Amino acid sequence: MIRTATVEDIKTIQQMLKYYADKGLLLPRSLSDLYDNLRDFIVFQEKESILGVGSLHVCWDDLGEIRSLAVLPPHTKQGIGRQLVVVCETEALKLGLKRVFTLTYQEKFFTELGYKIIDKSELPHKVWGECLKCVKFPNCDEIAMIKMLKT
Q1: CB 145 within 8 Å of CB 102
Q2: Could you tell me which residues come within 8 angstroms of residue 5 by beta carbon, excluding any fewer than 6 positions away?
Q3: Domain map (residue ranges) of the chain
Q4: Cα-atom radius of gyration of the chain, to the nearest Å?
Q5: What is the three-state SS of the chain?
Q6: How many CB atoms lie within 10 A of CB 144?
Q7: Confidence category of residue 138, pLDDT binned at 50, 70, 90
C-alpha cells in the first residue's frame, strides 16, 4: 500500500535514505529537512514495515522534482520504486504540473519510465538552492532527467 508519510515515519525514512546516502547514491536528509518537507513524502508500506519512500517537490509553476526515492535492498526490483514514481507523477498532474524531473544515478530505471536526459542548465535556477547543500556541489555527477506529463 502506498500512503502519505506521517511524522511517525520520519526516522524510518531518514534511515532508509541514509543507507543510500552513505553509498553516495542519494543526498542525506536531516531530520529537520524531513519534517519541513513531510507533505512531499509518500511511503510504500507492507504490513507494519515501510519498504520504500519517495517524494514530489514542487519547484516552479509547471515543474516538480521526484527525489528521495529509495527502496529497502531486499525489496528492490519488485516494482515498488516504479509504483512510487507513478504516484508522484499522478500527484504532480493533480497539482497542475506539466513536467517532472529527477537528478539520479539510475538512468535505466527512469528511462524505462519515460524520462529523457537533459542538460542540468535547462532546469530553473531555483532548483539549485538544494544543490548548494550537497557535499558534491559544485561537482555534481548526477544525471538530470525530465518527463513531460500527459494531461
Answers
A1: yes
A2: 13, 38, 41, 42, 43, 53
A3: 2-148
A4: 14
A5: CEEECCHHHHHHHHHHHHHHHHCCCCCCCCHHHHHHCHHHEEEEEECCEEEEEEEEEECCCCEEEEEEEEECHHHCCCCHHHHHHHHHHHHHHHHCCCEEEEEECCHHHHHHCCCEEECHHHCCHHHHHHHCCCCCCCCCCCEEEEEECCC
A6: 19
A7: low
Burial of 24: CB neighbours in 10 Å, binned 0-12, 13-18, 19+: exposed
CB atoms within 10 A of CB 42: 20
2-148 topology per CATH? Aminopeptidase (3.40.630)
Question: What mean pLDDT is reported for the chain?
Answer: 91
C-alpha cell of residue 109: 530505471
pLDDT, tens digit, 9 for 90 and up, residues 24-53: 888 888 999 999 999 999 999 999 999 999
One-letter amino acid at 139 equals N
Four-point Cα dihedral 71, 22, 111, 117, nearest 10:
150
Grid cell in block for residue 91:
500527484
